[in-house]
Amino acid sequence: MKQNGRDRTQQKEKFSFRSYITFYTRFPIPWWLFIGSLVFSLINTEVFLAISKYVIQINKGELYNDVIIGYSLLTVLNAVIAMLSNLCGEYGIQKVTLRARKLLWDKILHLPMREVERRQPSSLISGVVNDITQASSVIYMIFSTVASIYGFIRCCVEMARFNAVLSAYMLLLVPLAVGVFALVGQLQYHMMLRRYESLNTMTEFFSEHISAAKHVKAQAMEGLEIEEGLRAIDERYKADIYYAFMEVLQVFSNTLYTSIGKVAIALFGSDMIRKGRMPDTGINDFSTYKDRVDQYQAEVLTHYQTLKGTQGAMQYVGVLLDGPEEDPNAGYDLPGNLPERDIVLDRVSFGYVPQQPVLHDLSLTIPAGKTTAIIGNNGSGKSTLLKLLQGIYPPDSGRIWLGKSAVDEVKLAQLRRRFGCVLQHNPLFSGTVRDNIAYGETGEVSDEAVVQAAKLADADGFIRQLPQEYGSDVGMGGALLSGGQRQRVAIARTLLSDPDYLLMDEAGASLDHKSDMTIYRTIREHMKGRTIVVVAHDMRTVMEADHIIVLNSGSLEAAGTHEELLKTSSTYRAYLELQGCGLAGEEAGR
Amino acid sequence: METNAIFRKNYGSFRRFFSMLGKADLPYLWIIGYLAASAVIANVGVSSTEYSAALFAGNVGLTAVVLPYLFYQVLSLILSSVSGLINNLCTARMDRNLRRMVWRKTVSLPLRFYENNNPKELLSRITTDISSISSLVMKVFLPIFTTAYSSFVILRKVSSYDGSLMWSLLAALPVNILISFILSRLQFGVQDLINRRNAELTASVAERTNNLMLIKSMGTEAKEAGTGGERMKASYRAAGMNIWVTGMALPIRAIASVLQTIVIILVGRGFYASGALSLTEWIAYYGFAVQLTNILSAYCGYWTSFKSAQGAVDRVSEIMDERSEDLDAGDAMDSPTGGIHFEKVAFSFGAEPLFQGLDLDIPAGRITAVVGPSGSGKTTLLNLIDRLYPLDGGAIRIGGKDTSDYSLASFRRTLGYVTQESVMYAGTIRDNLLHGLDRKPPDKELDDVCAAVGILEYVRRQPLGYDAPVGESGASLSGGQRQRFSVARALLKKPDCLLLDEATAAMDIGGKAGVWASIRQVMAGKTVVYVAHDAQTIRNADYLIVLRDGRVEAAGEREDILASDPYCREMMENGEEGR
């Protein structure tokens, strides 16, 4: 969260006024709604003033029938017009929100992966959910501010018409109003920031510690846990206390302003009445107008405050929309005979952070139609390599070829459809088992195809035992299934898309070794003649591959068949030794 | 029948609510202070209204009206600030005290409770649920008294002008209050719908945004744009309903208030015309009528929030009703020496029995691996040794003594247990290594233990060394690095008995070998029990136990079992036979 904040201040510098304008040129704006809302508001100002005249009369004890009727009718009319104005404005906001939200969502779906990581998913989520609603209210806020300023001026004129001298005194209070307003705005900002931060800190603490409950129990650290929790609670309490004082200060300043107005009217007004410069009930009239003026003034100021508050959201959304995106359909078509093409890396370098290369000048070939295993230590770049193959990240330098097609020049959508990918932990989306298996397909998928894929992934068995079989809900992120079950569904999902190249990154780690081997062999059988790339820590899987690549700190250490590597690579031999595979081989030899 | 059930349910929830508040150590002094301030404000408000009515009527005597008016203005300014402050402080203290209570309770609950509840939901009990409970107290319960008293003060004043005037005012109120109650209820319902739709939207957006890589890899951007659009439309439609309800409420409220005003004026007009009311009194009376309506309608608006807070109350009082673990009952354990012996141990998750009369022996001072297919009960076995769950039957003995005789706290503290999750907290590397340790080891010792698990080089590379932050839940570390730190933390405790649950699973082949060599060295002569599922890790054991469906399939010296047990043989040789 803190990082997020920093991110936003950086964007502040990059932001230009142009983003404001371009944001609103990206989709149709329902202008007629906003203009309608403005017209109704302007009309209502007149109704409002007319009501004031009746209120003054009632307060003077002029309780005639026509006053009562006039007051009643106008009050209802005023509410009806206000309703119309609000309906127009709010519908305008909602329409803009819907359109902008869809636009932003589409943009997020097409963000390059590095951009996603830089901005962090949590901030993107709040962009779609919160920031967009704020950004969408800007036009309406501008129109409302115009209406409020008009009302303010109209009421000032009316007040001055009643008593110019006293109104002039009131004008002297305007600087005070501005000062109070500026102070309140500052306080508001600091209060909210501190509150927000303290809430975040507390939430982070508890979310981290509640999910670590087993660890705490296992070490019997309850005492320490309570103590740290109480400290986190106290931090929030301190922020609340700060908020308590600041909020009161804020309310006090606001009330102080109106009180000074009232006191001034009472002092000067009573003096004027005594000197006969104002009618006896003049304070009544004047206060009524003054109330109206204050009301409009408050409206103007709140609108201004809100408008200012939307600035951050506007910037965030604007910069995001202006930023880079992937076009899945730009580039050349992939040729049809892909399965026959080797994957070739030509001097590829890549790093997530500049100066810390993960892959370093890497050249290698992954032969078509065979199974290739990649091994290496943690951090040697195995998983990164797989992501580069699918075009998830572009290389910093060098090129990746599928036969004669350069990966960076072909249509990304086509490229990624030809690659299937199974990772160590594969997310599922909430929905049914069937939805998840058929996830990658755009058209209708037959039940047979789904069941067939599930059988290949050894998932059909457990799915049949679920209460609603293929129609069972998997829960958020697949939470209702066990790790092994999730993995099988994910494998079925990938197999259903019938890829030409299958990438597997520690895909068997959450399965027990027997199912792992069974599934792995079924997949190899099914994918016969197509290319499989496996990243594995389990040497038994590795030994079965047709081709083996040993990576070391992002560079190629050795490549070849099992037999070749036994001779050429000491790392490979050491790995076999450590897992007892070499030993088992020797024993068998003896 | 049905209404009776609902009534009983509500009654129960009220009772639980008050019994929970009783335990919560509420800031009673502050509450009394708040009530007192509100009472004074109610009286000052009445005087202030009277003097301003006099001003409006044209009584401008400086000492008789203007100065008292000023005095009351200033007084009410100060008093309202003070009462606002007390209100805020009260809420803050109540939040803090309730949170402290819930957190103390939560920490003391057994592991089962955490497994049966979603962590996110537990989190919201401490954060948002508590806030809605304290706002329930401050905005719904206390205002019962303050609103009643202010109404009483106003009505008393009006009745001092004329008794029947007060009664007519009372008679005119209910319509307005009823309407405002119905409208707030309706708005609450729609707001609830909006919140649900937004929550659905957020959940769906979050699920996808956190897994954008999958969407890219499957090429389903267009599909997701479509489904996202549907959710956004649902959210739009809910907002549209809200716009209509809020919009329609404006004229309805206006009509209700106009009707009431007409009644008030018609009644007052007679008194004013007959001279029973002076102009000042008329203005004051009119002002009081408006004030009374405002106070009561505002209260009705708050009352509807009671329903949303009810869920929070139920969830929090549910936690408070759970049974805590008693950590300190029993003998203090000094050192777990001797073998671990399971005697007819029975254990089940809900209705499904896992262990039924399990007998097994884990030898003292040696390294024992527990293997078996997933679901065979390996992790549960470790959890039972560490007494994280109570047994359904049988006993576990260490060195001949029943482990349930020891106090939970002393027992768990002497055993080291590295769980599957490799927990890291936001903080520095040092904080994480020393977490829960009751001594302060010198850096030299930290260096040794980090070198033992192969993480020293990483620590040295950090510009801040041991003081480098690891990020929330260790976010800046890879899975393998987190596991290394977890093992290091366990070794620093120098336990006499160490349990490891797939504690090296995420490490690479070379790393695993190094860490196991260190464990063997550091734990020489002490008991180590670990769960493993790969061939490499199994080779580090002296003794093997094979579990299948909650039964011991085989147990014995490693080499014997590897050679004889079909499960192990298959596991070790699988790679070979496939070739």
Helix content of chain B: 55-70%
Biggest sheet strand line-up of chain A: 6-7-8-3-9-10
Largest sheet of chain A, in brief, is:
6 strands, mixed
Mean pLDDT of chain B: 83
Quaternary structure annotation: heterodimer
What proportion of the residues of chain B form beta strands (DSSP E)? 5-15%
Q: In angstroms, what is the radius of gyration of chain B?
A: 35 Å
Reported for the largest beta sheet of chain B, the result is: 6 strands, mixed
From the helix content, strand content and strand pairing of chain B, which structural class follows?
Answer: alpha/beta
| Number of helices, where a helix is a run of at least 4 consecutive DSSP H or I residues of chain B | 20
N- to C-terminal separation of chain A?
A: 61 Å
Strand content of chain A: 5-15%
State the total count of DSSP E strands of chain A.
Answer: 10
Helix content of chain A: 55-70%
Give an overview of the whole structure:
- The complex is a heterodimer of chains A (590) and B (579).
- Chain A is an alpha/beta fold.
- Chain A has helices at 2-14, 17-25, 31-59, 65-109, 113-119, 121-136, 138-162, 164-172, 174-211, 213-219, 222-274, 282-322, 382-389, 412-418, 433-437, 447-456, 460-465, 483-496, 513-526, 539-543, 562-568, 570-578, 581-589; strands at residues 343-350, 359-366, 371-375, 397-402, 405-406, 419-422, 501-505, 531-535, 547-552, 555-560.
- In chain A, strands 6-7-8-3-9-10 form a 6-stranded mixed sheet, with helices on both faces. Chain A has a 4-stranded antiparallel sheet with strand order 2-1-4-5, covered by helices on one side.
- The longest helix of chain A is centred in the middle third of the chain and has 53 residues, at 222-274.
- Mean pLDDT of chain A is 82; it is low at 1-13 and 583-590.
- Chain B is built from 20 helices and 10 strands.
- In chain B, strand 9 (543-548) and strand 10 (551-557) form a beta hairpin.
- Residues 1-8 and 575-579 of chain B have low confidence and may be disordered.
- At the A-B interface, helix 4, helix 6, helix 9, helix 10 and helix 11 of A face helix 2, helix 3, helix 5, helix 6 and helix 7 of B.
